[in-house]
Amino acid sequence: MPTGTASKVTQLDDDMFGSEQPAAKQPPISLSHKNGHEASEEVVAEVAGAGDYSETQGYETGEETTEADEAANHSAVRNTPIPPRVEQDEEASEASANDSTFESVAGWEESSLTESDAAESEPVIEAFYASSESSEEFFPAIGAILAPIAKAVLPSLAGAVVQQGASRLNPRLQKIFQRLSRLGINPALLKRRETGEESDEAGVLDETTLATLEQQLETLEVVIGKDDRVQITNTKAVPWKRICHLKIQAANGKSYLGTGFFIGPRTIITAGHCVYIHGQGGWARSIVVTPARNGADAPFKSFTATSFRSVKGWVNNKSRNYDYGAIILPSNVTVPKEIGAFGFGTFSNQELKGKRLNTAGYPGDKPAGTMWFHGRTAKMILPRTITYDIDTAGGQSGSAVWVRRSDGQRIVVGIHTNGAASGNSATRITKPVFNNLKQWRAEGGNV
Amino acid sequence: MKRTGSIKGIVRDADGRPIEDVNIVILSGPVHRDIAAISGPDGSFGFGRLELGDYVLQAYGSDSESQVISVPVVAGKIAFVEIWLVSEPKDCPNHRNGEHPNQDSDIVPEI
User: Fold this and answer.
1) Which of A216, A233, A369, A395 is the most exposed place for a label (fewest CB within 10 A)?
2) What CA–CA distances, in Å, run from A268 to A131, A329, A397?
């Protein structure tokens, strides 16, 4: 792909600058049952499309404890459709770890997901520093981001290694060296480039500069960390055909890319911020839904929706914990029955722990309209969110995060919403979310 | 109350004309919503209600992509990003490493 670019960033005064309420804090909770109050699962089964093999089975139901004050935040709200602009009122013009599995995708290797453990740390550091003379390649973009802090910190780090030896560095510095190594960054080389000289002076490594470097490294790891997402090309197969490309037109006319998934014949679940966009006029004007889009190919055509759902916790309070919503397709369009629908359910922390999480969607950093898959186990399970190291990018908001159980059922447990260097995350399907999804599924017509 | 900021910008071609349907993606930064902006007919795009901090953006066109762009989002300011996205033959004599000849070269320096 030919590349060409330049950019310029200017800071402008913002008289319209606003503020928003912080998301409610949700401390990590123990992955153990609490006095029997954690929910056993409650599941709406996956729905096979016409022609699909049947995978549905009944599931036991149970109760999940919810906070009483959550009720208001989970109160469903709906939009009043915005009269469409004439030129926009058209159909789409563009074409426990052992009881769950990752999807079977060509090119996807679960074994490649093994994280290095602490026991391997020391040799990595030593080998990295020892080989520093031979490495001359340096990714310009890395340098661009790292340059200011590199000047301040990396020469001192290199000096510290010379003075103390890598094995005697304190654990924090060792970890920084490991992360640099994984990114292919050589502090000794940087030091020579920055200073033009060899030196073993350790310099001053204060808390502020180290913290800044760690933040920069987080950024770099997201930018250039190994991308092992896998493209889905057979998008007409289960479960990919239930995943939808969303082209969102905000109320102010701006356009966005998102993802959604079918849970019923006319009901597509997505992130709350895909249907109600704070700072861009609120409720979307329209969303073009393209199930199973594969590049320019739209095997089930596209549908324009103007009827949306979310909850007060997102619409009124802007809380990340309530970032979920729905698109209800018009009743006068014919949605192919063969698409089917994802199941969804609530699971206890213990049940989610170690489960293999799958997600697929339409990231904006890949060729237009192409679907990409990735999977990992959960990194952290919080009362209202699930955090993971699944690779995602802008455009995948609203993607289903599902488990594939040993019986073959695909059950959505979260709705992907957020990216962050510290871990991407989904709105967890808790009992109130589950209830709203059931309601919205019914509003779009039962299966 | 948590303060937030925003990023706005425009994507242009080599001749300064706006480019539509370019995906602009936040690659990293503070916790952010994983939605991609698509440039409109006037090339404009925007991300609102962002937590304050340093973001990294990249733009993806149909046949070209930008380099990563560092964008600080600070209180009381709109970070306005101008991106020139140029599809070019690799041996184009007027371009070096994908840079536009009129670019501000201080954004992505080499080390």
Assistant:
1) A233
2) 52, 8, 13
